[in-house]
Amino acid sequence: MKIMVIDTALGACVAGVFEGGDDVPLRPLGVRVEVMAKGHQERLGGLARDAAADAGGFDGIERIGVTVGPGSFTGLRVGLAFALGLGAALDRPVVGISTLDALAASVAQGDQGLVAAVIDARRGQVYARLFRDGVALGEAAALPLETARDRILAEAAETTPVLVGSGAAVLADAFPELAQAVLHPLPAPSLEALAALTLAADPATSPPQPLYLRAPDATPPSRLPGQPRQPAA
Prior knowledge:
Blueprint: E1 2-7, E2 12-21, E3 24-35, H1 40-54, E4 63-69, H2 73-90, E5 94-98, H3 99-107, E6 114-122, E7 125-132, E8 135-136, E9 141-144, H4 145-156, E10 162-164, H5 167-174, E11 182-184, H6 191-200
Parallel strand pairs: 1-4, 4-5, 6-10, 10-11
Antiparallel strand pairs: 1-2, 2-3, 6-7, 7-8, 7-9
């Protein structure tokens, strides 16, 4: 199967085309990655075009995978809108991939013990999901740093946890108890992990819908343009 993966949820703008499936290992046909915190909307179309060109064009792509969060509110919407538009144009299914699942899959290798995928959510929180030997131990959640620490230590028991994502250094810097953890502060999931999860996803149960674990930081304006300011009480 020939698939395209798109990721704009975190600190990179990513587009790649892979081929594989069943007993055929995945292999990259065209890959484009640019590390960036902002500006995904301006770059994604060109990166997807170039990745597809390296793979022989958009013809033959059978499935599109896109990260659905958690992550940047604006970045998620950019990637989802592009993937859904491309899927409609090509008449191909689009599947949603959890950013935390993809981060964990980026470092998981067999029986690796406890892996905590953690994204810096700011405001004293991380988006987190824990995995043991590749199996999720619960749902993704927005957690205070102290709660995330406690859950990681409780699940790790006497073993050394692996922390992956932008929240890895945040937790290790905040808590001496996690200073010995294995850290992978990746700005975004690996393309190989995204491709593997896209290939394994069931379109019926992996909808391309945003996963927001808390409300956006932005707030609606208190008055419409042209309206006078309310006098102070």
